[in-house]
Amino acid sequence: MRPSNFLMLVVMIFAQATIFADGGTVQLRQEAGALVITVFTSPAPLSAGPVDISLLLQNRNGLEPVLDAEVSLLLRADALSGEVRAHATREQAQNKLLYAVPVMLAKSGKWQVAITILRKGQRTDATGTIYVAPAPEMAASHWSYIAFTPLMIVIFVVRERLMRRKPKG
Length: 169
Hints:
There is one protein chain. The chain is α+β, with helices and mostly antiparallel strands and 169 residues long. It has one domain: Macroglobulin (MG2) domain (Immunoglobulin-like, Sandwich), CATH 2.60.40.1930. The protein has helices at 3-15, 138-141, 143-165; strands spanning 25-32, 35-42, 49-59, 70-77, 83-88, 98-105, 109-119, 122-132. It has a 4-stranded antiparallel beta sheet, with no helix packed on it. A 4-stranded antiparallel beta sheet has the order 5-4-7-8, with no helix packed on it. It starts with a helix and ends with a helix.
């Protein structure tokens, strides 16, 4: 195997753990009233700490995006010790078809999500459950940064040894 192919393989293996397509995982999809509500969360997997919650609202007929609603969230931990209220807006979302809000989920476990949508004088409610994992250990959450320098040194040493073996001609 050529050194450049080996290096590309190593980079692809280590990069796959940190690359996410859209930064969110579908946690809930529900039809309520005239709407289809899809809830995305980031990071993936969802863990205690800072969380980005995004919602895609669509008309039930035709699935066109709904862009003129007011969206409120109430997240309640099953342990009855935590409650988070938030107002999701399109201004906070990178994708302007979504409504987003950053929240802090202090505990792991089951969280009940209550979504209230006000649109054209009509109120639509939806509920569901999301599961939050414990917060990752600090070193475990930054393993790729910690491992980067030693990995690059090993790759450099392997490359140098392979270059010395190559016959000059």
